Amino acid sequence: xxxxxxxxxxxxxxxxxxxxxxxxxxxxxxxxxxxxxxxxxxxxxxxxxxxxxxxxxxxxxxxxxxxxxxxxxxxxxxxxxx
Length: 82
Fold this sequence. Notes:
Elements: E1 2-4, H1 7-16, H2 32-45, H3 49-53, E2 64-66
Antiparallel strand pairs: 1-2
């Protein structure tokens, strides 16, 4: 579990990992309204653990959590020289 100060910081981290362009048929543009709505929903659904213990007032909470799955894959094919 990785903690972030805000959903926008999480998106910035995903961009730096080149993980924001995963959809094949995604729309080329995301409106500001949609981004802010998604940020608010993510904040409500995945608050940081310390934020869950604090007040339920949205202004008192801060931070979100994210989890990552790291997949390691390798490929091999026999070559004539082997």
